[in-house]
Specification:
The complex is a heterodimer. Chain A is of the alpha/beta class. Chain A has helices at about 20-25, 50-55, 95-100, 110-125, 140-150, 165-180, 195-205, 220-230, 255-260, 270-280, 310-325, 335-340, 365-380, 395-400, 410-440, and strands at about 10, 30-35, 35-40, 60, 75-80, 105-110, 135, 185-195, 215-220, 265-270, 290-295. Chain A folds into three domains: about 5-60, Alpha-Beta Plaits; about 65-340, Rossmann fold, CATH 3.40.50; about 360-443, 3-methyladenine DNA Glycosylase II, Chain A, domain 3, CATH 1.10.15.40. Chain B is an alpha+beta fold. A five-stranded antiparallel beta sheet of chain B has the order 1-2-3-5-4, covered by helices on one side. The N and C termini of chain B lie far apart (about 35 Å). The interface between A and B is medium-sized, with 29 and 35 residues.
Chain lengths: ~450, ~150
């Protein structure tokens, strides 16, 4: 995996090695060496927990800035539906879309409506047979990455359907090409993202060559300007022009699963719980479940690390909007079914496995290192203090056998070593002083 | 110099502890992933060791699961203290189970345990003494192509 495809960058000058990132990283992908944090790229899944945790704001998502889009003749904002839930409870999506046009985008394209279309496509898909069970939602890029890194056996369980943000961008480009007679590369589609993971899915989509999205800007970055612009917008009064449909619920836990109207679907959020479920699926369980909606963030996308609003308050807003506008579809179901039949939603490419580096490429050497790792681990205090710069004693033992750390980088091992050296030293001193005294007595 | 070219580790499994059920199989998988065994083999070991673990959780008092891995093969031995199996031949039949209704409602006891182990292992040996316990031993061979999950990268 190339460096520039990862979502996170550590600014070494700002990093003081305070280890907050080390403790929160769910895949043990961070090490602190010489007071600076580094990311083990083969393990990072781009979840963004470290971005949130860093007290020095030294870990930054690799996103675009406004100036990157000056090369386009026409720009379309593709806001993640999370954006709809970042403002006061009476601010409707239509106002927010209008606000985006006010702050400099030529147009803004809603993603809740394509989300509804994807829900219907999923319903159609789940009615067919011969699919792996359970299917896993591919819409959280950090989950896809987790599967590539740790659960390559489950790659075939990922649903081969395009994400709502890609569909929105594809449609936006098509519409504008027709309407304005522009070429595809003259229209810039900019995703307003709730998390760093989505930026990786845009730069390096797992199943295809190119994304329809040209860049991403964090919601938190656009927030202050947009907030100001919103005060000058007269809310859309016509009911018919409001954003509506079940797609409005996608940013919260269960939003997708409940939109499928089936009993054999689950929604799981938070990486630890997702990992537990993946272990079970790998063991051959959960065959009676057809679809699992998975999120890395415990509160799903409204809890993304680049949002502004408290995720629980945002969730409340989602539920309120769903109640008001959720039941009325934004497009006729028949049209979506037709598109589904024409494979409008399908994403046929294969997702490659990308397993975390083993102890060694040679199996016998790896077995030997595994034994050595156990020996090193036995010497360690097993309190996962992190002082060595690895998050746990187990990962430290692994670093030692891989040659990336020395056993006495552990303070406890060092103290023991020091104790034994100093007791040897003390004994030698005593022995010699006794000898000297003995000789003095003789003379 | 160590003469032994294999790595082995043991895990305790406690009967009736449904909360931890699957933990030993998970640990086994973690070892195999670190050594770089390819994912097809890992899936077979996962299913077989999980079924063996669940048999202990459902029927036995306690057991140890030992994994031994060498360049040639993965061997797993689950040695339990429990009721033993009356008729091994019958227990090997698909769909045969002595599970209670409660266990079945939880999705266990479909009578696929031992047959599933057999299907995923290259060799399976079961020794059992009624009233004392059961020892399930299975081997998955590592052919040249099965080594090095890292090659997928």
């Amino acid at each position: 995996m190339q460096d520039d495809f990862r979502s996170i960058k550590i600014e070494k000058d700002k990093c003081q090695g305070r280890m907050a990132c080390l403790r929160v990283c769910p895949t043990q992908a961070i090490r602190v060496r010489h007071k600076k944090a580094t990311i083990l790229k083969d393990r990072c899944i781009d979840c963004g927990e470290c971005v949130r945790a860093c007290p020095n704001k030294a870990i930054l998502p690799q996103t675009s800035s406004f100036s990157d889009f000056s090369k386009f003749k026409y720009t379309v904002a593709i806001p993640s539906p999370d954006l709809y839930y970042q403002f006061g409870k009476d601010v409707l999506p239509s106002t927010i879309l209008a606000g985006l046009k006010k702050i400099g985008f030529d147009d803004a394209h809603d993603v809740a409506c394509p989300s509804e279309a994807v829900s219907i496509a999923l319903q159609e898909l789940l009615d067919s047979n011969n699919l792996p069970r359970p299917l896993i939602s591919p819409f959280c890029p950090a989950i896809v990455r987790l599967i590539q890194v740790r659960y390559p056996n489950l790659l075939d369980n990922l649903v081969p359907i395009e994400s709502p943000m890609e569909i929105a961008a594809r449609e936006a480009k098509r519409e504008k090409m027709e309407e304005l007679g522009l070429k595809e590369n003259e229209i810039g589609t900019i995703y307003l993202t709730p998390c760093p993971a989505k930026t990786v899915a845009i730069r390096n989509p797992p199943r295809k060559k190119h994304s329809f999205i040209d860049g991403a800007i964090p919601i938190s970055e656009i927030y202050p300007t947009l907030l100001q612009a919103l005060t000058h917008i007269t809310p859309e009064s016509e009911q018919e022009k409001q954003v509506r449909g079940i797609g409005l619920g996608w940013p919260i836990v269960g939003g997708q699963a409940s939109s499928l109207k089936r009993e054999d679907c689950l929604a799981i959020a938070g990486l630890n719980d997702v990992i537990r479920i993946f272990e079970e699926i790998e063991n051959g369980k959960l065959k009676d479940i057809r679809y699992i909606e998975c999120h890395t963030c415990p509160t799903a996308c409204v809890g993304g690390s680049l949002n502004v609003e408290n995720p629980y308050i945002a969730r409340g807003k989602v539920l309120r909007l769903l109640e008001k506008y959720g039941s009325k579809p934004c497009q006729p179901r028949e049209k979506i079914r037709e598109l589904y039949q024409k494979k409008y939603f399908s994403l046929p490419g294969k997702i490659p496995a990308s397993p975390a580096e083993p102890l060694d490429d040679d199996i016998q050497v790896a077995i030997n290192k595994m034994k050595r790792k156990q020996e090193v681990y036995d010497l360690l205090p097993k309190i996962d203090c992190g002082a060595c710069g690895a998050p746990t004693c187990m990962t430290f033992a692994e670093d030692v056998v891989k040659g990336n750390a020395a056993a006495d980088d552990c303070v406890f091992v060092a103290i023991k070593k020091f104790e034994s050296i100093s007791s040897d030293l003390l004994e030698t001193i005593l022995k010699h002083s006794r000898k000297v005294r003995h000789n003095e007595n003789l003379s | 110099m160590r003469m032994d070219k294999s790595y082995s580790q043991s895990f305790e499994i406690t009967g009736n502890n449904f909360f931890d059920a699957g933990k030993a199989a998970t640990e086994v998988k973690m070892i195999l992933k670190q050594i770089g065994i390819n994912s097809d083999i890992i899936r077979r070991v996962a299913i077989a060791s999980y079924e063996a673990e669940m048999n202990v959780v459902m029927y036995a008092k306690r057991a140890s699961m030992t994994i031994e891995i060498s360049q040639e093969k993965i061997k797993i031995v689950v040695d339990d203290e429990g009721p033993g199996i009356q008729n091994i031949e019958l227990a090997m039949k698909e769909g045969y189970s002595t599970a209670t209704t409660e266990m079945r409602e939880m999705g266990f006891g479909a009578g696929m345990g031992l047959p599933n182990i057999k299907r995923n292992a290259d060799h399976l040996k079961i020794e059992s003494e009624v009233g004392k316990g059961t020892k399930v031993e299975f081997v998955i061979e590592l052919k040249e192509s099965a080594r090095g999950g890292s090659k997928e990268r």
